[in-house]
Structure formats: structure tokens, C-alpha cells
Design brief:
The complex is a heterodimer of chains A (about 475) and B (about 110).
Chain A (H helix, E strand, L loop, with lengths): L19 E3 L3 E5 L2 E8 L5 E5 H8 L8 H8 L3 E3 L5 H18 L3 E5 L20 H4 L3 H11 L6 E7 L7 H18 L2 E7 L7 H10 L2 E5 L4 H7 L7 H16 L4 E6 L8 H10 L4 E2 L1 E2 L6 H7 L4 H20 L5 E2 H11 L19 E4 L4 E3 L2 H8 L6 E4 L5 H5 L2 H9 L21 H8 L10 H19 L1 H9 L2
Parallel strand pairs in A: 6-7, 6-14, 7-8, 8-9, 9-10, 10-12, 11-13
Antiparallel strand pairs in A: 1-5, 2-3, 3-4, 14-15, 15-16
Helix pairs in contact in A: 5-6, 7-9, 12-18, 18-19
Chain B lengths: L5 E5 L3 E7 L5 H10 L5 E8 L2 E7 L6 H39 L10
Antiparallel strand pairs in B: 1-2, 2-4, 3-4
Helix pairs in contact in B: 1-2
The chains are: A alpha/beta (about 475), B alpha+beta (about 110).
């Protein structure tokens, strides 16, 4: 039988004799509404309330017939003698939210080449080179990486081809897809493929292969032609025209939802968010990912110095308001980062987005097999390695076993140190259930995995975006309906 | 949220604090100082009976108006931290019960 630790007591000890009892929750004072608080519990439920209401609630003075009492009770912030299943429901919801951890590594990124025909200002990992021998993944490394893919117990596996530009090494993409499918006949997983590509080499041959194997495409579209081409230069300056043409051809052959796109916010993009969103609409996209610049790589760092996190937050808020306006006018469009946060707020199982997990998604959510056989805990980890910091290198396909890489200090160290429940500030933060540990970001910006959250741009960004979303959900009925429709 | 005795005095380079230790816990004071790390550094100097003394060190060139703002934000934050402590204490047993119950039917608990 299971032995309970000494401090555990029987269930009846927790029944309220009269009035109500508090269930565990966390609180944050809203920065833009000083007399209001958002409270959340471990299963992600949230309620916005005034300081006076919070005081009444905590001091057990809340009237049992008030709407707030019913709201707090229904969302598991309190229970009373009429609550028959409060503990059971909370436990069930908690178990659902953390079940993903046991699922283990679902996303496997193959960097099939570092070669690229673009020289994007914010990219540090690509090479404009014809040197296949030095910058392409070998079939032997691909085979070893595939063996690791199926060591993961995950029922759902996604293989994502990254670069450089992966279509410059399409023969290897083809080989990996066919080998993975062959291996999966024995393993029986839900196996999916994505090619993250600038689409400049999207031939009919490639499209035919994608159609035959159900491969999705993910591309970059930074906005209108002048902005996109300035940020994503090619020899002939035709990146925008090529990507628009490729998107049209891909949709015609693979279906309307076969291509997704994301953008990167540079200083030049800051004032143009409405134009960027409108470009997505003109191209027929139904979603956009308003993505901040990551502080990896020297070029990205020089760009990021030209704007601060508050600039990006303003950009994001304007962009989201514009997207909501589009919805108001009848064009169904969603923002992907918001969707991830909403899933974490409202979905019983949260979100699988690897950058917002606790424990962190590195290694146990996603893993990178680099072109040279090195294995990294995350895509950002390999970018950091390009700057000389190999903290997140788990090992090498030729030298290290699955066991040594997945139980080594390079992975377990940052995972254990950054679990949000034990991190200063995060442990008490109301937004903890919607947030995640980001050891690579804090290593890059503060030199340690945990980072001081009062000084963290990641924390500032998360807090501002979540406060904005919570206020929208509370204050704007149309926004609430629309946002909940994105789940 | 709490009405404990609290006193502070402003200086050009620091804010001296004297807090009622029966109302504010050391951990709440530390957490409040941690959150304000961008604007000041907290030093807890001594813990006399029922009095917690500390200093918020201010960056060079801080104006008096800004120092007052830091002090106000510190005490606002301290109230929140103290409230968090209270909630955590009151709900600690329930949190453990929920977690134990959540995993009770999995094979993750060592069975004897």
C-alpha cells in the first residue's frame, strides 16, 4: 500500500466546519490597475477582483450568496460544506495538466543543412555556402537520430526539418521521411512531419512528396515586400515574391491550411504591425505569430539593442487589437502566441508549446539533431552554441548514448534548477500556470539558467501580455468571444 | 492589507526600514525586496525583538520623489507578499492533499 508522508491528514480534516475554506491560489496586483488583482490556481483557473473583494475573500467575509462567491467556488478557489467533489475535481484537473510531462519528447528537429540562400539579419545559424561536405547532415547521422526519435515514449511524434534551408538538402529530407515511416510501421506512433522553409526551392517535385506524405510547411513572412526583402535578403532580392508564389502553389496542391507562417519583430517592423497583419490577410493566412526577436547570435543582439521589451509589448498590443478589429469586421484571424497562452489558461491539458513549459520543454519537449551530429536540448540552445556557449549541447550522435544524453547534467541541471514552482518570484506569481521556464534565454541574457526575474525581459514580456489578455477577457465581450473561439 | 507598524526614513542614498516583525515575516520582506531589484537593493541588517530592520540601497542620483515612490512600492509589495504568506499557510495542507490525490492512481508513487 501507499504510505503517506507524516504531514498528510485524512480528507475529513479539511472539511470546513462553517463558512468556507480557501483552496490554494496565487495572486498578482495588476500593474495597470493598481486596485485590482488577478488570482489563479494550480489548474490555471483565473479570476480578476478588486483589492476590497480580495480582502473580503481572504478574511472569510465574503457573502455566500454573492456572484463572486459562486464564481470563486466554481473555479476552485474556495470550498464549503456543500462542495462534495472539490478536492477530486482539482486533483483530476491537476493530473490532466501535468500529464504532458510523462509524454516526453514529441518534437524532433533535424537540421539537415546549415546552407541557406538567404542572409537574414537576425539569423546566426545559416551559411551562404555551396560546401555540402561541411554543412549538410550525413545519412549516417540521420539514421542515428531516427533511432533516438523512436526511443521517446511519446505517442505523438513530430519531425521538423530545419536549417539553414532544409530544401537545399531535400534528398536527405526525403530519405528521413521514408525511413521514419518504415520504422513507424513497427512503432505505431502518430507521426507527423513539418518542413520549416523559406520556400524558395519549393518545386513541384517537393510539393508532390509533401502531398504523398502529409507534410506540412512552415515559412517566414515578415510583412510587406519592402520590409520582408530588406530583412530577408537574397542575391536577387526576390524573397517576398517567391514566398507568396510558393504559398499559392502549396495551397493549390496541399490545401488551404497546409502552410503556416511566422514573422520576426525587428526595429524596422515595430511601427508597422498593422501593415504586417494586413499582408498576412492579403496572402490569405488565417493566423500570424507575432514573434519577438530572440537574443541569440551577435547580429540579433545588435538588433535587439535597438528596441526594448516595452517596444515589443506595444507592438504586440497594437497587433492584437488590429487582429480583433479584423475579426469584428468579419475576417476570422488569430494570433498564435495569444492562442498558446489562452490554451494554458483555459484548456484542461494546457499547451504543448515547448518554450512555455515547466519543467522546461528543452530535451523532454523538443530536441535538435544538428547537421554535424551534435544534439542540442533546444533550437535556441544550438543558436547559443554558434556563439561559443555549448551549455545546452547534450552530446553527439557518434559518441553518446540516448541514456547518457537524456540523463546527463547538461539536461537535468537546467531542468531541475528552473522548475517554476521553485524559482524566486515565479513560485508566487499568478501567471505561473500560463508561463514557462526558459533556461536558454536566461543563460543568454543573465549568464545563468534561472535568472533574476525582476531583471528579466522574458518575465516582463510574459507579465505584460498576460495582464493585457486578462483585462481584454474581462472588459471586452467581443474580444472574449473571439479569443475563446481560438481555442 | 495588513495594518502592522511600519516606519521608514528617506536618505539621499537609502531608505531605512523599521518593521513590526509580528506582522511582517522576514521571508515576505526578502521577497518584496527581490521584486524591486531593478530599482533598489535590500539589506536586512538585524532582527530585534518584534522589529525587523532593513535598508533599501538606492542608485546614485535618486531624487527624493523617486525614493518616495520606491518606498511606496516596497510597502505595497510587502503587503502583497504578506498576504501570499497567509494564503500559503492556510492552504498548504490542501495543496499537498490535492497533489497526493492527483497522483494516487498513477504508477509514479513508490508502493511498499
Amino acid at each position: 500500500m501507499t504510505t503517506l508522508k507524516q504531514p498528510f491528514r485524512g480528507r475529513t480534516d479539511f472539511l470546513p466546519s462553517s463558512g468556507y475554506r480557501l483552496l490554494p491560489f496565487r495572486l498578482n496586483r495588476l500593474r495597470e490597475r493598481q486596485d485590482h488583482y488577478v488570482i489563479t490556481n494550480d489548474v490555471g483557473e483565473h479570476v480578476l477582483l478588486s483589492k476590497l473583494e480580495l480582502e473580503d475573500f481572504v478574511d472569510h467575509r465574503l457573502g455566500t450568496t454573492t456572484a463572486l462567491y459562486r464564481r470563486l467556488k466554481s473555479k476552485h478557489f474556495l470550498f464549503d460544506e456543500r462542495s462534495r467533489v472539490a478536492i477530486d475535481l482539482l486533483a483530476l484537473k491537476y493530473r490532466s495538466r501535468v500529464a504532458r510531462v510523462a509524454e516526453f519528447t514529441a518534437l524532433h528537429m533535424f537540421v539537415v543543412t546549415l546552407r541557406c540562400d538567404h542572409s537574414c539579419h537576425y539569423c546566426q545559424v545559416s551559411r551562404q555556402s555551396e560546401d555540402r561536405a561541411n554543412f549538410d547532415m550525413t545519412p549516417s547521422h540521420a539514421e542515428k537520430a531516427l533511432a533516438l526519435v523512436f526511443r521517446s515514449p511519446a505517442r505523438h511524434l513530430k519531425i521538423e526539418f530545419q536549417g539553414g534551408e532544409p530544401l537545399l538538402n531535400f534528398p536527405l529530407v526525403r530519405h528521413i521521411v521514408e525511413r521514419a515511416e518504415a520504422l513507424n510501421r513497427e512503432h505505431g506512433r502518430d507521426l507527423r512531419f513539418v518542413i520549416a522553409s523559406n520556400l524558395s526551392r519549393l518545386t513541384d517535385d517537393v510539393l508532390g512528396f509533401c502531398k504523398d506524405h502529409g507534410i506540412e510547411l512552415s515559412t517566414s513572412l515578415d510583412g510587406p515586400a519592402d520590409l520582408h526583402d530588406a530583412q530577408r535578403p537574397t542575391k536577387d532580392g526576390s524573397s517576398h515574391a517567391r514566398v507568396m508564389d510558393a504559398v499559392r502553389r502549396a495551397r493549390a496542391m496541399l490545401g488551404d491550411q497546409s502552410v503556416s507562417a511566422l514573422m520576426t519583430t525587428t526595429p524596422a517592423a515595430l511601427e508597422r504591425v498593422e501593415e504586417i497583419v494586413d499582408e498576412y490577410v492579403a496572402a490569405g493566412f488565417r493566423s500570424i505569430f507575432l514573434r519577438s526577436l530572440s537574443p541569440y547570435g551577435f547580429a540579433a543582439r545588435s538588433l535587439i539593442r535597438r528596441y526594448n521589451v516595452q517596444d515589443w509589448i506595444t507592438f504586440f498590443k497594437r497587433g492584437l487589437q488590429h487582429i480583433l478589429d479584423l475579426n469584428r469586421r468579419g475576417y476570422a484571424m488569430r494570433e498564435e502566441y495569444t492562442t498558446v497562452l489562452l490554451q494554458k489558461l483555459f484548456s484542461p491539458t494546457g499547451s504543448g508549446y515547448v518554450d512555455l513549459q515547466s519543467p522546461a520543454g528543452m530535451g523532454i519537449g523538443g530536441i535538435v539533431y544538428n547537421y554535424d551530429g551534435a544534439v542540442y536540448a533546444s533550437d535556441e540552445g544550438r543558436m547559443l552554441a554558434e556563439m561559443g556557449d555549448t551549455s545546452f549541447k547534450l552530446g553527439h550522435l557518434d559518441e553518446d548514448s540516448y541514456k547518457s544524453m537524456m540523463t546527463g547534467d547538461a539536461l537535468l541541471g537546467p531542468l531541475e534548477a528552473t522548475v517554476l514552482e521553485s524559482v524566486p518570484m515565479c513560485a508566487d506569481c499568478a501567471f505561473q500556470p500560463c508561463c514557462g521556464a526558459d533556461p536558454v534565454f536566461h543563460q543568454a541574457t543573465q549568464g545563468d539558467w534561472v535568472g533574476h526575474k525582476a531583471l528579466s525581459a522574458f518575465c516582463e514580456k510574459q507579465t505584460a501580455v498576460l495582464e493585457f489578455l486578462v483585462a481584454l477577457l474581462e472588459d471586452d465581450a467581443f474580444a472574449r468571444r473571439t479569443l475563446l473561439g481560438w481555442l | 492589507m495588513s495594518n502592522g507598524k511600519r516606519a521608514f526614513s528617506l536618505h539621499p542614498d537609502r531608505i531605512d526600514l523599521a518593521l513590526d516583525a509580528s506582522v511582517y515575516s522576514t521571508i515576505a520582506v526578502q521577497k518584496a525586496g527581490y521584486r524591486l531589484a531593478r530599482r533598489c537593493s535590500l539589506v536586512i541588517e538585524c532582527l530585534a525583538e518584534n522589529e525587523l530592520r532593513g535598508t533599501l540601497l538606492l542608485p546614485q542620483g535618486t531624487t527624493e520623489a523617486h525614493a518616495r515612490e520606491v518606498a511606496a512600492d516596497f510597502f505595497r509589495e510587502l503587503s502583497d507578499q504578506q498576504l501570499r504568506e497567509r494564503i500559503q499557510e492556510e492552504t498548504k495542507g490542501i495543496r499537498e492533499l490535492v497533489l497526493a490525490h492527483a497522483f494516487s492512481k498513477t504508477d509514479l508513487i513508490n508502493r511498499q
